[in-house]
Predict the 3D structure of the following.
Amino acid sequence: MTAPTSSSPSVPASERRISALVGAIAESATLAVDAKAKALKAAGRPVVGFGAGEPDFPTPDYIVDAAVAACREPGFHRYTPAGGLPELKAAIVAKTLRDSGLAVEPDRVLVTNGGKQAIHEAFAAILDPGDEVLVPAPYWTTYPESIKLAGGVPVAVVADETTGYLVSVEQLEAARTERTKVLVFVSPSNPTGAVYTRARTEAIGRWAVEHGLWVLTDEIYEHLVYDDTAFVSMPVVVPELADRCVIVNGVAKTYAMTGWRVGWVIGPRDVIKAATNLQSHATSNVCNVAQAAALAALTGDLTAVDTMKVAFDRRRRTIVRMLNEIPGVRCPEPKGAFYVYPSVKGVLGRRIRGARPSSSAELASLILDEVEVAVVPGEAFGTPGYLRLSYALGDDDLVEGIGRIARLLAEAE
Ligand code: PMP
């Protein structure tokens, strides 16, 4: 039975329940897998979770101390301006110059409830119904939903493991139409860990400028790059893009602060003004105490992320090696973030413990049910046939979890 929606004009409004727009939103698959794994763990099951997109480290003490001090200060019990604490905006300006080499002014910054709200408000501010947004796939599961909520139409541009999950200008150009308005650019990428080179970033940025397209560039994993890989910010290598470029960032991944909910968006003044107006009615300011914590994070150094990076890099090598030892699994070595995205196409259709998983979704369920390891299927990222595993978990858990998967898949006939 299909529930009546507002797209059924014959049904009286009073009999329709959920709006067509919001009713069409899918649950966040990554949060769903994580919730299931956490529930099993709480019930005492020895679950190993590769689902979470968050560092397994605590927030550094100096940041927590700043929040505790703010809690005791009545000034921090009040609203801040909707767009954020002026000191925090100044710190974001300074940090952006320090880390990306990009000079911006405070009135081009909006402090948001995490990178997620930054993305949501940016799309809401720049999209009109029917505007198409090119989204390189595998994509982070939030982008298409956020685009659709803003009335836009997500258009996936798929890259696979043979190109290291990187899209080319030619592929983007083939997907461009008269209705294309925005390109989403994420490097390092969630879910693949792929990082665009400076040359490719520049080529894509120039292509966008040539066609008058906007770019939403998500820089939340900027500090998590490995080997000799360098992060580059697209508006730095293509300054002509400045008037049509929106940058998303936040403290979640760099400072192990996912729960604090502080992110920001940097963009042209008119976009920031419109997005700030939207936020002023939706959520007002970000939690004042959390802003104080983010201020401490951004005005401090990068020791915390450097320490996490050493652990992530070690785990990255281990997980890639162990996955590639499993017959039927193919895992390119990611250069950034804390995810691997192996292809499991070589395993699908084979018999494992009485089942014959024919999709990555079925395989992920089987892995959770049979060996209590949580992974996110590629369906969540627009590309069936793959799994996403976060390696932001303890080294021993990582080895145990991949070992269980390997033993299970070794039974495939
Ligand atoms: N962008 C990307 C690519 C992400 O992976 C995430 C978190 N999973 C975010 C943005 C949002 O982060 P937050 O809302 O926690 O700041």
Notes: The chain has a mean pLDDT of 95.
